[in-house]
Amino acid sequence: MRRSYLFASFIFTGVLLLAAISASAQTGPLRGHVLLKQADGSTIKAAGAQIDVFRTDLTGSYPTKANKNGEFVYAGLPFVGTYIIAASAPNAAPYALKNVKVGRDIDYELILAPGDGHRFTDAEAKNAVKGAGTGDAPAAASGESATDKANREELLKKNEEISKSNEKATEINKVVGETFKAGNTALSAKNYDEAIRQYDTGLAADPEQPALLTNKTLALKARGVDRYNATITSKDEAARAAGIDAAKADFKAAADAANKAAELIKAQPAATDPAEQAKQAANRYSVMSARAEAMRLYISKVDPTQADAGKAAFEDYIEVEKDPVKKSKARLDLAQMLLDAGAGDKAYAAYQKILAEKPDDPDANLGAGLALYSTGDKTKYQEAANYFQRFVDKAPDGHKFKNDAKDILANLKNTENVVPERTRPATRKRP
Length: 431
Hints:
Blueprint: H1 10-24, E1 27-37, E2 43-45, E3 50-55, E4 61-65, E5 71-78, E6 83-88, E7 95-100, E8 107-112, H2 122-129, E9 136-138, H3 146-188, H4 192-205, H5 210-231, H6 237-267, H7 274-301, H8 307-320, H9 324-340, H10 344-357, H11 362-374, H12 381-394, H13 402-416
Parallel strand pairs: 1-8
Antiparallel strand pairs: 1-2, 1-5, 3-4, 3-6, 6-7, 7-9
């Protein structure tokens, strides 16, 4: 008596997730540190240095201060922008670095030479880096020593490498942004083949993009559902087998993509800025909810031996789900997935957690009865019958499994002489 509404409301859920991912993928972090060159050629941390980030593709400036270690962090700047970082400090010449991109996990280094403490304006910073092939514009020092010259040239070489890395990052960001947008358009239009192709193109440029992986999960699940539903009732055995195999391949690929996205999300350092914390939480929710559904389908339809991995995925999702209705549904889906996988004892434990809070829940009583009955252990039949009877008593008329439960009760009575007791089945306390 497995539930037949496994695929209901999937597309609606996908649209909600799509919106969440799109909104949360528009900013990224930027970090770096500032050093101050000394007369002997050594450097010290430029505590409290002034940092000005100027956007070059659009108008925008983002001032901040370095901390006591000369470090600075912007929790979230527009992801698609191109920037200049300008640094200044008392008794130092200003320094500007161009072709900067956010969200690339680069610790930008800026070294200030001795100077008059001037601070670049937006226009001065842009003019300073204009035409500079190295990507930066350190202020020239008159009469610099051979050591200073060597240090400056080494710095220019290092920044040249950073500039090239930034140019590559710019191209990658362009591909990622374009394919994400095109894939989302195709996904909304239910053109799943095109959506998957677009997401794969973006992932080829940067395979560590949780948003691309999550929306690819959605597209694969949706295509798998269509394939499964289109062929499951076919009278052509060869066509039915081919269609189901194709659906199973999609379910497996969806689970793989979702697990990779979850791995990346979990590895991200915790944000400290409240706005960035909210975005991280939204991203985590989107990934975990998509992963739980992907694993449910994969385990129920493809590989029941992965029940423990599916249980872990659901637990991650339940942890971040704040809506009580959705959380309750997720707990039932987890228990049903374990039951579908043939893990009767684990399914029973999952239903027990639900019944500890809601002893009259019809679906949980039915599930607990099925979990015990499915083990084939006759010593558990009495308790199973008690749960079936409670389901019959509490389920509304017209429930699609009510007659099935009555049939099981009749069979238990006729073949095993088991009659339900008119007492509430015992429930274990939650640990």
